[in-house]
Amino acid sequence: MKRIAIIGGGISGLSAAYTIEEKRQSGTPIEYVLLESSPRLGGVLVTDRVDGCLVEAGPDSFITEKPWAADLCRKIGLGDQLIGSNDSERKTYILARGKLVVMPDGLMFMVPTKIMPTVLSPLFSWRTKMRMAAEWFHPPHKASEDETVAGMVERHYGSEMVDLLADPLLSGVYGGEASQLSVRAVLPRFADMELKYGSLGRAMLAARKKIGGAANGPPKPLFTSLKDGMQAMVDALVARLDPNALKTSSPVQSVIQQDNGWTVSAGYQTDQFDAVIIATPTHAAAAVLQAADENLSRDLGDIKYSSSVTVTLGYDEKVRASLPPGFGFLVPRSAGHRMLAATFVHNKFPHRAPENRAIVRCFLGGARDEQILQSSEEEILQIVRDELRQIIGLNAEPLFARVYKWKSAMAQYSVGHLERLQRIELLRQKLPGLALAGNGYSGIGVPDCVRSGAEAAGKILAEMGMWSAA
To answer: What is the CATH number of domain 2-43+234-303+413-463?
Structure first.
């Protein structure tokens, strides 16, 4: 009987456990123990119900284009729970020069693919619009080395595009700065497009035509969520795992390779395993691997993380009627606010609020504002309410408010991240029976974490001769 330890009970660790549990259920002689330091499983996937509204503490959805999360939901009986975003209502605003300006039609993640909406938009200066026109004639370009997202976007469109779009968009996804994040790690398609086409605009247009020609039926929604909230995914996974294998409030101090296996120390207990899957943030993985391999530990520890705060406010039907239509707004750092973005949840997804309620979800923190975590909930609520009043004129008293703090939750893929991953993989291969999973490696979204956990389990099972491509 082979034994596997899974360290970390977030969605990556749970996905790894589910992959192993499927093998166990089919008769494979294997068992596992999942060790989670906190009292609950699921990590940042937390759903609350307040005043008839569904409130997400962490991620509220995942990108539909990445299939791994939706596929897992179908496997665990949540296929009928999958819902798409209300894309007919999708409109996003940018706070520019003190006013909310709608993002022009045809922008595909900061790349303009339609000329007239961009030319007519008050969002950009004429200087930037001229840069956008000239960008269509960029020759193919192969970067000699990795560069920041800001560096690439500025080469194509100028600094205003970085300030108004690239930085706010990446703040929303990564909690990071365009001036620090790696193009190759964060936007690999952009690097490929620049190599092949030169112009990002022409490349995006070609990709959209290709997708349109191959598509059958109506376009898929941009975002997918679960009708009963993202925690439903955690609950369904946990229900399918061996309850005796799940150990919460069990922080692991170290993992050490010995006797053709691994010794895992958690609290006053040590246990022996044939393999270990570490599905934690990389700084936590670095700590437990210190005794196993100092070089691997150092590289893992060099991957930085940012923290975030989400604030959800509930309002009545009067506020709902007064809010701008659309999904919400992004706040460039140059605007001088601490809020990074706000989502009008009742517009973005069905089933989140009754018709007489509005849900406004605000985001703070990120790489430039780690100190927000030191503020009390009352101080954070005051900041959010003051800024909502300044930005959208929202003066009403909320019916409810919830504040959630997530310390060091979002990995920052800085310049050189892919080279660091190569070093980490070479060092990992020298430690048989060790696999790594989580959002610190090749994608921070829920689908990426699901894929990461399943692949880590697959590697270990393959090493044990219990996994085949079939």
So the answer is: 3.50.50.60
Is residue 240 classed exposed, middle or buried when 0-12, 13-18 and 19+ CB atoms within 10 A define those classes? middle
Helix, strand or coil, per DSSP, at residue 362: strand
Burial class (CB in 10 A: 0-12, 13-18, 19+), 297: buried
- Cα–Cα nearest to 159, from 125, 120, 198: 125
Pairwise CA distance, residues 320 & 217, whole Å: 33
Distance, CA of 312 to CA of 327 (rounded, Å): 14
60 CB-side CA count, 13 A: 30
Q: Residue 178's closest CA among 57, 333, 298?
A: 333
User: Under a CB-based contact definition with an 8 Å cutoff, are residues 191 and 149 in contact?
Assistant: no
In the chain, ranges of CATH 3.90.660.20 domains:
305-412
With a CB cutoff of 8 Å and minimum separation 6, the contacts of 298 are 286
Q: Name the class of domain 105-214.
A: mainly alpha
Amino acid at 307: S
Tens digits of residue pLDDT in 142-170? 878 899 999 999 999 999 999 999 999 88
Full-model pTM: 0.94
pLDDT band at 331 (very low <50, low <70, confident <90, very high): very high
Report the mean per-residue pLDDT for the chain.
Answer: 93
8 A C-beta contact, residue 434 and residue 300: no
The residue assigned the tokens 């005796």 is 244
Q: How far is CA 339 from CA 14, 378, 380, 440, in A?
A: 32, 15, 10, 25
- Provide the CATH topology of domain 305-412: Polyamine Oxidase; Chain A, domain 2 (3.90.660)
Measured between alpha carbons, how far is 256 from 296 in angstroms, rounded to an integer? 13
Provide the pairing of β-strand 47-50 with 30-35.
Answer: unpaired
H or E, element range at 172: helix 167-174
What does the DSSP 8-state code read for residue 162?
Answer: I
Cβ–Cβ < 8 Å for 411, 303: yes
Q: How many CB atoms lie within 10 A of CB 130?
A: 13
**Mean pLDDT along residues 412-420:** 96
